[in-house]
Design goal:
heterodimer; B: alpha/beta; six-stranded mixed beta sheet; binds adenosine-5'-triphosphate; binds magnesium ion
Chain lengths: 309, 285
């Protein structure tokens, strides 16, 4: 109603509408029963305890392999689920609205097209976030229990051998570093950021594609290219040095501007090995993800604002 | 503002569609102009594929005109704020299957900036009005065609718009439901709401509309007040009850003696199929 929108500031009403569409997209996905995959994750997280039975290990290093295995399997599964969900869900939502013509009824309301796009994207991100949060809780719990088991075992062994307290302490710190740390939470955040980039990319693709299959295929392709693009770039630059250096540099710059370099996310592997992610690296990842998400969303808006249905 | 601003103003609308990958253009709407003043009920009629839906979509900014302008209450259709005051029921509407009727209306209400108890009251009111209170918590995915059409109508009215655009509101609805929808449109018009509709049920258009436009192959071929369009000025109709042969013959004789007038036709008036259907249905009940 007129008086209603008049009392509401323009920015407020944008935010509200985006949230309405986002919560709706979230509910829609939840009612499609996406959360069932969490059961599979639970099996993986708990099963990873036994994937790597440490029988061959000597008692002095016993257990750390298991911790590594739990993290590696869990983060791997998180990556897989989050990327698949963000691509497939995004690729599904837009064409479905166009096909079912529900889009008519939405755009016939005072809904700017950017609000619609941002809402859908946010809804998918909410879903990925909640899924990752649940998976994270499960992984951390499993890891926590297993770490204290390993620690007890090792401390008991060390005390038996009569290790000095300092040596026991440093051994304990080593084991804890393999367990659940802040860096591990950072790695989960990195998984989320990568999935967000993929969701916004899939949004862009789906604004000009006509089918879910096309969108999903292209998005997965770009995902894989994103893992190799740094190598390809380096190779190209080497060739370029012989010829025109400036052109080569410009081309690489352009490529990085539109194609995310997923090798930045290799920090996740480092965390699995028990290393610490510096805060600066985390901050950089956040900025990179924000840049691509914004870039892809704005590009989608450009395509979508001229679209006819 | 006020009474002088037309509710709908379409000026010289042309819309071309690109067909397939060849560069051939298909002209769906060709230089159509329509002006609807507040409070009018305008019916657009025409054969399939004549450009009715395309005209409506252009008015709602869902397609961009190739040339010409559309405005709702003076606001350009390509701008978002023109849609504050309009409700739209697309042809063969289809809503989110996973939502219930109640949730559907709440969703559209929130999109219009409504919220809180005002929204829930409006939702209840509309569910009552379209007779879906009993199905409010059922998923829309399980709704029948007529129910979809009715929830679509409710959705269009959620923010109390001053203009409603209905693309074949009675398509696929049984005669009883279709009559309910017709009554609803009449009620809207009594409340001063402007209605722009298109339909293939000419009888219903005749019953509810006071302005009619006939569109054919994208061109407006006839437009005006319904009464002016359908009245046959030089003819008069007499319908008699229980008249016997003698009286009829007498009337014929009188007409003959008049010299100027002539009898065009006599016979039994037929009830319409619609009226017959409705009568039989109500007798069954
Ligand atoms: N998106 C589109 N792309 C290409 N052609 C289109 C598109 N939409 C409509 N048309 C064409 O434009 C013409 C008019 O279509 P429109 O849907 O406006 O007709 P209509 O009068 O609503 O018909 P009906 O009574 O069947 O609903 C048709 O020939 C149709 O094929
Ligand atoms: Mg149509």
């Amino acid at each position: 109603m007129m008086d209603h929108s008049d009392t509401m500031s323009v920015k407020d009403s944008h935010v509200r509408r985006v949230l309405v569409i986002a919560t709706h997209a979230f509910t829609q996905l939840v009612r499609m029963k996406v959360f069932y995959f969490l059961a599979i994750f639970a099996v993986i997280a708990i099963g990873s305890n036994f994937f790597n039975l440490p029988q061959h290990e000597g008692p002095e290093s016993a257990g750390t392999e298991v911790l590594r295995s739990i993290k590696s399997w869990s983060l791997g599964a998180m990556t897989l689920f989050s990327v698949v969900i963000s691509i497939v869900a995004t690729a599904l939502l837009l064409p479905k609205d166009v096909e079912d013509r529900t889009l008519y009824t939405i755009l016939a309301k005072p809904v700017p097209r950017i609000d619609y796009l941002a809402g859908k994207l946010l809804g998918v991100m909410m879903l990925v976030f909640v899924s990752l949060l649940l998976m994270d809780v499960l992984m951390t719990a499993v890891l926590h229990i297993r770490t204290s088991m390993v620690l007890d075992q090792r401390v008991a062994y060390a005390t038996e051998l009569g290790w000095p307290q300092e040596a026991i302490d440093s051994m304990a710190a080593e084991v804890n570093a393999m367990g659940s740390t802040w860096s591990l939470q950072g790695a989960v955040l990195a998984v989320f950021l990568r999935a967000s980039i993929m969701a916004s990319l899939a949004l862009l693709v789906s604004t000009f594609s006509t089918s879910t299959l096309f969108t999903a295929t292209v998005s997965f392709l770009i995902y894989f290219i994103g893992h190799f693009q740094a190598d390809a770039r380096d190779a190209y630059l080497h060739v370029g040095e012989v010829g025109q250096g400036l052109v080569a540099k410009l081309v690489t710059l352009l490529v990085t501007l539109v194609l995310p370099d997923f090798q930045l996310f290799n920090v996740i592997d480092a965390v699995i090995e028990g290393q610490v992610i510096p805060l600066v690296t985390m901050g950089k990842l956040v900025l990179v993800a924000l840049y691509y998400a914004l870039f892809f969303t704005i590009a989608s808006w450009f395509v979508f604002s001229d679209k006819e249905f | 503002m006020g009474e002088t601003t037309p509710a709908v103003e379409i000026r010289n609308l042309v819309k071309d569609f690109r067909t397939s990958f060849r560069k051939k253009l298909l002209r769906a709407v060709d230089d159509v102009s329509i002006t609807i003043m507040p409070g009018e009920v305008y019916g657009l009629i025409g054969p399939n594929g004549s450009g009715k839906s395309t005209t409506m979509k252009a008015l709602l900014g869902l397609v961009a005109p190739t040339s010409g302008q559309c405005a709702i209450f003076g606001k350009d259709s390509l701008k978002v704020d023109s849609r504050n005051d309009v409700g739209f029921l697309p042809e063969n509407p289809y809503f989110y299957k996973h939502l219930s009727g109640n949730e559907t209306l709440r969703f559209y209400g929130k999109l219009c900036g409504l919220g809180g108890s005002a929204l829930q009251e409006r939702v209840e009111e509309l569910l009552e009005m379209v007779d879906l209170t009993g199905a409010r918590d059922r998923r829309v995915g399980g709704y029948s065609k007529g129910m979809l059409q009715r929830i679509g109508l409710a959705q269009a009215l959620i923010q109390k718009p001053r203009l409603v655009i209905l693309d074949e509101p009675t398509a696929g609805v049984d005669p009883v439901g279709s009559r309910q929808i017709r009554d609803l449109i009449l009620k809207l018009s009594e409340q001063g709401i402007t209605v722009f509709l298109c339909s293939h049920l000419l009888e219903q258009v005749q019953e509810v509309c006071n302005q009619v436009g006939i569109i054919f192959q994208g061109r407006m071929v006839k437009e005006g007040r319904l009464e002016d369009l359908i009245a046959i000025e030089d003819q008069t109709e007499i319908v008699l009850q229980d008249a016997d042969e003698r009286l009829i013959e007498g009337i014929h004789g009188m007409v003959e003696r008049d010299g100027r007038a002539s009898v065009v036709r006599t016979g039994k008036p037929r009830t319409t199929l619609e009226r017959l259907f409705l009568r039989e249905i109500s007798e069954e009940e």
